[in-house]
Amino acid sequence: MTKDKFEKIDEQVDPQEQSTQPGSEEKMNPEPIYDDEDYTGSGKLEGKVALITGGDSGIGRAVAVAYAKEGASIAIAYLDEHEDAEETIKAIESYGAKGVKFATDISDVENCNQLVVDVISEFGQLNVLVNNAGKQFPQDDFLAISPDQLMETFSTNIFSMFYLTQAALPHFQKGDSIINTSSVTAYRGSAELIDYSSTKGAITSFTRSLSANIAEQGIRVNSVAPGPIWTPLIPATFGSEKVGEHGGETPMERRGQPSELAPAYVYLASKDATYVTGQAIHVNGGGFISS
Questions:
Q1: Alpha carbons 178 and 60: distance in angstroms, whole number
Q2: Is 74 helix (H, G, I), strand (E, B) or coil?
Q3: Are strands 73-78 and 177-181 parallel, antiparallel or unpaired?
Q4: Which backbone phi and psi does 129 adopt, to 5 degrees?
Q5: Which domains does the chain have, with CATH numbers?
Q6: Which of 196, 265, 267, 275 is catalytic?
Q7: Taking a C-beta distance cutoff of 8 angstroms, is the pair 155, 112 a contact?
Q8: What string of DSSP letters covers 15-27?
Q9: Is the pTM of this model over 0.90?
Q10: Is 196 a catalytic residue?
Q11: Phi-psi region of 153 (alpha: psi -120 to 50; beta: other; left: phi over 0)
Q12: pLDDT digits (tens, 9 = 90+) for 194-217
């Protein structure tokens, strides 16, 4: 059987590390596939405005590009990876969509409030919020998880979702959508990512609970739960040996690419998913999930 493009790029991954979180896409070798040339948009998000956190690289970049293909205007929020963010904006604009970038730390509530104000000022509306930014810090020893690490992980991964969603909701209308990035670790746990997995479990509960709370407003809340995906967070998190093995434990025996997740985010933001709320779409290379 001929190997597809995703299998081929998986074989090209060299051992590598990055020293800071959440990592830079331009430093990865090879760079992730964020724009699937086989994916053609059909106007599913025409007239929509989307805000994507962690939109400079990885899953966020892939979602931004797919949304651009579908006709949306896009705001991306990121921490300080300016080169990555500029590349994402160029990719968005290459499909004729408007893209704007905002460098900010969304672990702070005031930054989140200002971010939504800035997006509304730029576009005049907000229809899709993709809560995607995240950090993870492996610790084999549970006792080594410091209060500072715990606060940083929770502030970035889950507190920011509360802050941004509270700021965005007053601007939402019936038919708008919130999509949260969870993880396979929310369902399976992870021995060395206990605090990270805990935030992802919180995201799952947040998604289910918020969806019930605002269902009568006609605003849908869902999540995507990725398995091992080739993003900057991987070399920024793990040692080079583990990076080389990343994804090999899945039934498909490879890591996923960000572009393989993007259609799930398109579906959940579009009219195709009008009867879908409080749910998780598992894109994980074949792992069975019992929820």
A1: 14
A2: strand
A3: unpaired
A4: -110, 120
A5: 43-283 (3.40.50.720)
A6: 196
A7: no
A8: P---SSSS--GGG
A9: yes
A10: yes
A11: alpha
A12: 999 999 999 999 999 999 999 999
